[in-house]
Amino acid sequence: MTETAAPEIPTDGRLSCEPEQMACSELKEEPIEGTAKAGQKFVLFEHHQGWSRDVLDGGSFGGELSGKLSYFFGVHNASFQLIRPAGRPKPRERYRVFIIFTGNGLQQPVVERLEVSCPQDLLKLNLDRPLANGGQKVTHPLVLVCTHGKRDKCCAIKGRPLAAELAARSEEEWVWETSHMKGHRFAATLMLMPWGYSYAYMDTERALAMLEAVQRGELYLPQLRGRGCFDAAGQVAEILVARSYGSPEIGSLYVEEVDLGGEKNPEKTVREVSLPDGSSYHVFLERRPAGEMIPSCGKPAKKAHKWVGRVRRVVAES
């Protein structure tokens, strides 16, 4: 019996996620550094019913409430995520809510846990400062694994088994399935809270190693996309310095843009990364082309870019 040759996969921008071609998370040409979901304030809401493609498009909570929630979180500059325990959780009479302030290296991250009786109660939350709702302060990490199949099938196929395995091997309320959090092309993808770190192409072994590092107080560097409190260039700068510095205390590096003079160029920038010991580094970054990426299953590929940097230690003047 003669085998049929596999169809040639084009790499000139025509690549898409047709059934006979690869899924978006299989291309893996695009660098992962600098692609983390942005944000310093998150509200996680336990919701066991179906998740619509966009959780505030009216399909999950109805049009009127979705509009109010979208406005409310927009005013408070907060990201809204739906979460649920892995597997088939039992229904609950009240909804668990986690309010997260990720910090940024200078400010410490804070998580508040509380329970509400209905989704409308979310509109009553005080999101102006940490621990403002009379809830419980959470001191353990939260691992959010994207399983939002209506957004992209890769997250359901790769995320759900990972979430189930991690939940079975972790403490209660440490691991959650979550709605779309940017980057399903990196599935299985997860966020590590309360710091707001995003990771790509995770499996059980890597995720458990990440949790072990967290419990030692260390930042886990493999598969790290970045920390969402920084912009894309800042995320890359933190990663480059962390790799040079070793595995520093998690969440301890602070990144800020600096002006060292010279002509402004949107494709070039400089970030200063400060370490807990008082030392700092300048990272000189340049944005360059970097292969192709499929933004979502069923969509054509497009060109990807990356920030490339070189690190120089800042020497204090005597």
Could you explain how this protein is built, in words?
By secondary structure, the chain is of the alpha+beta class. Helix content is 17%, strand content 27%. The chain contains four helices and 14 strands. Strands 5-4-3-1-2-7-6-8-9-10 form a ten-stranded mixed β-sheet. A hairpin with a 3-residue loop joins strand 8 and strand 9. The longest helix is centred in the middle third of the chain and has 16 residues. It is globular and about 60 Å long. The termini are far apart. 40% of the residues are buried. The N terminus is likely disordered.
Summarize the structure.
By secondary structure, the protein is of the alpha+beta class.
Q: Beta-sheet strand percentage?
A: 25-35%
Summarize the biggest pleated sheet. Answer: 10 strands, mixed
Quaternary organisation of the protein chains: single chain
Query: What are the segments in which pLDDT stays under 50 over at least 5 consecutive residues?
Result: 1-19
Helix content: 10-25%
Task: Detail the topology: elements first, then pairings.
Layout: E1 41-46, H1 63-75, E2 79-84, E3 95-101, E4 110-116, E5 136-138, E6 142-146, H2 153-168, E7 175-178, E8 190-193, E9 197-199, H3 204-215, E10 224-227, H4 232-245, E11 254-257, E12 268-274, E13 280-293, E14 302-313
Parallel strand pairs: 1-2, 6-7
Antiparallel strand pairs: 1-3, 2-7, 3-4, 4-5, 6-8, 8-9, 9-10, 11-12, 12-13, 13-14
